[in-house]
Amino acid sequence: MQGVGVQLSGGLGNQLWQLSAGMMAGGGAISVAYQLSTPAARCIASRLLHPLPAWAPDSGRLLPFGYYQHLRHAAPAADMLRLVRPCAAEALPCVVHLRGGDFRHHPAYAATIPAAEVLRSRVAVLGISRDADVTVVTDDPELAAQLCPQWHCQSSSTLHDFHTLRRARTLVMSSSSMSWWAAYCGEARRIVFPRLWPVDNGAGADDGTSAQRGAELLFDHTRCILHD
Fold first, then answer.
1. Where are the beta strands (DSSP E) in 28-116?
2. Residue range(s) occupied by CATH 3.40.50 in the chain
3. Mean pLDDT of 25-53
4. Are 151 and 96 in contact (CB under 8 A)?
5. Which residue has the higher pLDDT, 225 or 41?
6. How far is Cα 74 from Cα 185, in angstroms, rounded to an integer?
7. 8 Å CB contact between 168 and 95
8. How far apart are CA 191 and CA 181, in angstroms?
9. pLDDT at 1
10. Across 26-103, where does the E strand assignment appear?
């Protein structure tokens, strides 16, 4: 069985873009992952694909390296992700995704980390008034303690955090592809969608371009609230 090979890179969110682009190019589940570099991606990909053992020259076409972050590439993986049963993650009233970690060490990415007052504003936009109803899912508990110590913090495995974001009743996204996929395939009835996204892989050279790119990734005007 021939397929399309995709060379995966980055974290779970970026790898989902790459897998989805491969599925689209390969006509569905016959696409094959060339490298599965994160356990979370391996777990999800095993339910999305019927992979060949490894890509080889006679296995078909190998997609060019890239992140493929465009709405036109989202549908194949999204359709399958909605069928993947979330691991034991509770449906919480309001989940805030705070992406820190390596974002803090790269100027273009650090610019997308919201200040404390912005986080509070985004939660208020959703009509959430009780701190007890807010959970912060983060890869950076230290940053969460600085910005929003009033909210419960969860920093678990990538897969568990992803499904917590997916199951949230209301969601404050971060400017990350993992957050985007959780919102796009998730259950949240209202979503705060950040306008500013990091410049990456030729997406733009200044904040104005990356802000426009964020708006271009907005997928549902009935659920999503674009926020500066």
1. 32-35, 60-62, 94-98
2. 94-227
3. 59
4. yes
5. 225
6. 10
7. yes
8. 12
9. 46
10. 32-35, 60-62, 94-98
Angstrom distance (rounded) from CA 215 to CA 120: 21
**Average pLDDT over all residues of the chain:** 82
Closest CA to 142 of 191, 103, 94, 88: 103
Q: Which residue has the tokens 């979330």?
A: 86
Q: How far is Cα of residue 53 from the mean position of the Cα atoms in its chain?
A: 27
Concatenated DSSP letters of 46-62:
HHH----SS--GGGEEE
**Which pTM was predicted?**
0.86
Rounded distance between C-alpha atoms, residue 200 and residue 207, angstroms: 11
Q: Report how far residue 162's alpha carbon sits from residue 131's, in angstroms, rounded to the nearest whole number.
A: 22
pLDDT at 15 over 60: yes
Q: Are 197 and 213 in contact (CB under 8 A)?
A: yes
Please state which CATH class domain 94-227 belongs to.
alpha beta
Q: Tell the residue number behind the tokens 């971060």, with chain if given.
A: 174
pLDDT confidence tier of residue 42, bands split at 50, 70 and 90? low
Q: How far apart are CA 200 and CA 183, in angstroms?
A: 21
Place of tokens 């508990």: 141
